[in-house]
Amino acid sequence: MAKFDSIAIIGVGLIGGSIGLTLRERNLVREVVGIGRRKHRLEVAQRAGAIDRGTTDLASGVAKSQLVVVCTPVELVADYVAQAAAACPMNAVITDAGSTKVAIVSAVDTVLAGRREGPRFIGSHPIAGDHRTGTEHARASLFEGRTVVVTPTDATPAGTLEQITHFWESLGARVTAMSAAEHDAALAATSHLPHLVAAALAAATPRELLPLTAGGWRDTTRVAGGDPQLWRPIFATNRSQVLSAIEQFEASLSALRNALEAKDDGQFEQLLLEAKRTRDALGD
Amino acid sequence: MAKFDSIAIIGVGLIGGSIGLTLRERNLVREVVGIGRRKHRLEVAQRAGAIDRGTTDLASGVAKSQLVVVCTPVELVADYVAQAAAACPMNAVITDAGSTKVAIVSAVDTVLAGRREGPRFIGSHPIAGDHRTGTEHARASLFEGRTVVVTPTDATPAGTLEQITHFWESLGARVTAMSAAEHDAALAATSHLPHLVAAALAAATPRELLPLTAGGWRDTTRVAGGDPQLWRPIFATNRSQVLSAIEQFEASLSALRNALEAKDDGQFEQLLLEAKRTRDALGD
């Protein structure tokens, strides 16, 4: 890609830290600036090799960056994009890594509305999370072979889409463009619903039965260990799509339950087989 | 433990093969006899070091065994126990590894009813599966630190319970005794429900969205890749307990859905937190 000279990362946790690590390990940029609220976290990120320098002053941090990546929890993204847009170079590109896109993209649209000049924003979502969070789990391999969804709008210049596509590809990811609404509907099914189902399963299990669990329970509930404070705003900004995904899930669960209840074991096995085919299509 | 001279394993797949491997690696027995329907599978098990010799003739295979372990799919267990009881030494102990216990224990009770002499049966369930099956995934570490439930009845002599407890402990497992009914109710929640939920989630996911899945979907659906033919009889022999477990799950899911729908994000986060606490109590 056209090498960026300076990239600013706002929020140096798992995603932001991994972006920095990859950029620096691959020597893709002269300088990675980490921006955060807590000095201590920035020092940890710097020691880990994720950033060249850190600052708690957003405006000075983005002042010379051609690219700003906002990697904060979703509810903070739009505000940081606005702050960055007010302080970064006029020709800069701003993107984010939030797990929902409609709320962010429309909030940013409102803030930047009507401007024909100045920094451009395009939404991104690297689908490469982990139930663990924080810089200490960041790794340069996080994006390798993973999908990043970018969500251009009618107002996004082709050049901006191209730049951001190259950026994520340079980190090892595959890039798919779709609308923010398409993204949120898809992720409701592929990420938010699994989280909810895992949580419901964990919550439905009496604690005293844990010694009688094996790999099945362990795998099926793993993401329920994620941070509720991070997940709350993800669900809050994708409410109706998640509710639709729950309906789909409940229809599938009802089909299985009905077959079991009706002692229609042939139908029950057939439903398990169809589920297995979808699961097997993904691989282990 | 009082070392067994000869142990027969009926069914040399993942569980049976792993029992054989562990017995032989730990030098716990003079001879492990593998019994199966297909000569080829027995040869594979022998080459893998899981058995000393194999035979398709059950009666001759168990003729000199002090312990017979039936490791077939659940729907075949009771019949094999009956065949083994008719052919093994009078002082032998027979156990199994089936995932449900009420159906097996009561079927065996019926067959062996009224006998005051002869081989003793006690149900076992090593909670140490894998979504992959077959001898090729067998390993000597499979039972290390895992729980094995044994299900003695009022008719089980104390000496038999002790023998079988020592047997599983010698393979590295922890042994817990409970009634077959308690076992089935617990496993409905800890194993059968997770399987059903994983299958429903996989089935509810449009195939074209698989590229937009990440670790969450992957983990939450993993067990849905299990063999439907093996799982069908597990569910069929634990129908009412599984239906109760589904009710528990649906109550938990409804609580989350209602909070989401009502935009009560505080309550929603609290429910996620309670689920996380149960999940975290298990560890990664």
Through-space gap between termini of chain A: 33 Å
Structural class of chain A: alpha/beta
DSSP strand content of chain A: 5-15%
Oligomer: homodimer
Explain what you see.
2 copies of one chain form a homodimer. With 284 residues, chain A is an alpha/beta fold. Chain A has 2 domains: 4-178, NAD(P)-binding Rossmann-like Domain (Rossmann fold, 3-Layer(aba) Sandwich); 183-282, 6-phosphogluconate dehydrogenase C-terminal like domain (6-phosphogluconate dehydrogenase C-terminal fold, Orthogonal Bundle), CATH 1.10.3660.10. Chain A has 11 helices and 9 strands. In chain A, the strands form 2 sheets. Chain A has a 6-stranded parallel beta sheet with strand order 3-2-1-4-5-6, sandwiched between helices. A 3-stranded mixed beta sheet of chain A has the order 7-8-9, with helices on one face. In chain A, α4 links the parallel β4 (67-70) and β5 (93-96). In chain A, α10 packs across α11 (265-282). In chain A, 53% of the residues are buried. Chains A and B meet through α7, α8, α9, α10 and α11 of A and α7, α8, α9, α10 and α11 of B.
Descriptive terms for the model:
homodimer; 284 residues; alpha/beta; Rossmann fold; 6-phosphogluconate dehydrogenase C-terminal fold; 2 domains; 6-stranded parallel sheet; 3-stranded mixed sheet; 51% helix; globular
